[in-house]
Amino acid sequence: MDFRFAHDFDTDPQGFWQLFFDEKFEEAMFKHIGMRGRTVKERRDTGDKLIRTQKLEPDMPVPSWAQSLITSTGYTEYDVYDKAASKMDVRIEPEVMQNRFKMGGVFSVTPLGTGRCQRVFAGDIKVSVMLVGGKIEQYMVDEMRKGYDRAAEITREWIAKRKQQ
Prior knowledge:
- By secondary structure, the protein is α+β, with helices and mostly antiparallel strands.
- The protein contains three helices and seven strands, in the order βααββββββα.
- Helix 2 packs across helix 3 (about 135-165).
- The radius of gyration is 16 Å and the shape is globular.
């Protein structure tokens, strides 16, 4: 199942990425979107790329129809941010059903004119479980959409605060 989430911000792409990778902002954002746990396993800047691996545990209810399959909502996120291209490749690996779950996408930030940008996260998710795979995919896309909407809220708040300073 393909997905695409887009949000506009009152900052240029460089300002967005500076905020996005700010440690204090990351901590506040992950708390705001409902992560009960976050551990950064790797964060390495190679000059032209930033490589980050983090283990995340969303505080997300598992629907009763999926509880026998999904015993944990935790996952590891592998990110490779290409500074020149203003995009980040993202791969998600869940704690459970690793051989039945594939998810990845591209997180890109493009200018919308002077002092504005658009963040887009687009990709696809595939859950290979007979009868309920498509239902799990739809549930996950819906939950991700809620999370990205909440992340946009706090991002806009932090951008506004920074402009006031």
